[in-house]
User: Fold TetR/AcrR family transcriptional regulator from Actinocorallia longicatena.
Amino acid sequence: MNSRPGGRPYHHGSLPETLVTHAVALLDEAGAEAVAVREVARRAGVAPSAPFRHFPDRAALLAAVTEAVAVDFSERQLAAVTSAGALPFKALGTAFVDYALAHPHRFALVRGAVFGGARTPALEAGHRDFTGRVTELIVAAQERGELRRDDPELIRVAAQALVYGLSQMFVDGYLDASRAEALIDRVLDLFGLGVLGEACRE
Amino acid sequence: MNSRPGGRPYHHGSLPETLVTHAVALLDEAGAEAVAVREVARRAGVAPSAPFRHFPDRAALLAAVTEAVAVDFSERQLAAVTSAGALPFKALGTAFVDYALAHPHRFALVRGAVFGGARTPALEAGHRDFTGRVTELIVAAQERGELRRDDPELIRVAAQALVYGLSQMFVDGYLDASRAEALIDRVLDLFGLGVLGEACRE
DNA sequence: CGGTGATGTGATCGCCGATCACATCAACCC
DNA sequence: GGGTTGATGTGATCGGCGATCACATCACCG
Assistant:
């Protein structure tokens, strides 16, 4: 019946991945609310009940989508940091806002999942890894005298809240997204005075 | 049929208000997602189709809920400001976070609606009024030399993003809500150094 | 007192999430 | 190689939801 010249291992091939792929596309198109199991199955060309063989319910499918998106998200941010040698924090914040603007629905999903209470083990691990690296950056900057020698976790949380709040305001259309970069610069300058270390004060 | 000793004007009384009341209760209990038109009608004791006489669709009902909640939200913040003579900004931020923690689902709803693009005229007016008052506070503080003489709108946006991001992190359980006040103090102190005016610098 | 329009009802449609018995096919064992 | 077994996909089905429609009911107005 099915033309399956390739050596697909099972009936369909690897249905779970296919489902997640289509679900991400659907998420990008119309938001998490629009990710219906039946529609995903339809796009994947399988029966409406097929996805339930791999995901116990819709929430589990969304969780898989979230994991995939979160991995992509954190990878991009870390890439931005490593590629921009100096000013890693501005690069990090800009990458965060840029990703949120490019994929607003993905941002909404990871927001609720990463910051939310019900974290998957994989999400939890990825999150700990990411925050750990950011804290390392902060400590390093403190040792170079570029940042105030305050509790690094406090600085991290505050910076995270700021970037996060700005991102949401951009995504929601509350701020002009086309001027994102300039506004980020100004806000960071404004608040940066409170966080800079001795070496950077005039 | 119905025992209506009170002089209720219509068949039911004023059904729209009743519906919104039950919808808000449902929102508080289980989030916006759980606000089903049928369930609201059930609680109000009317037929499933009755709400559609007053709200064209579910989105309109949710919009009415949002308006009611947004009014309550901004009233509480303004009350906090006027009751706390000095340090109005800390009072404002604390009131914001407190409300978000007390009613997380309401916060999620107004977030998407107030910051979001599709604002009801009533919401838009209330929002303009509110941000106007905050900006006045900022300008007044600048004239007293308590705040940096920077663009007041910039300061407002930055402060809003910070408080907003912190609120979301508390609501999502990412930060320990029981230590909200202390953490707000520390973050404001940390960033405040960048925003304070000449009169407050040591 | 009769009409008229606003309000509430019940039936109905299509979509969704979820479950079940059943079909199909790969893999494994003898 | 043939049979068994378990994983995977199907179709039917259930209940819930949003939305619409014809119909019933009731307040209000002339």
Observations:
- The radius of gyration of chain A is 20 Å.
- Chain A touches chain B at residues 111-112, 115-117, 148, 150, 154-155, 157-158, 160-166, 168-169, 172-175, 183, 186-187, 190-195 (CB under 8 Å).
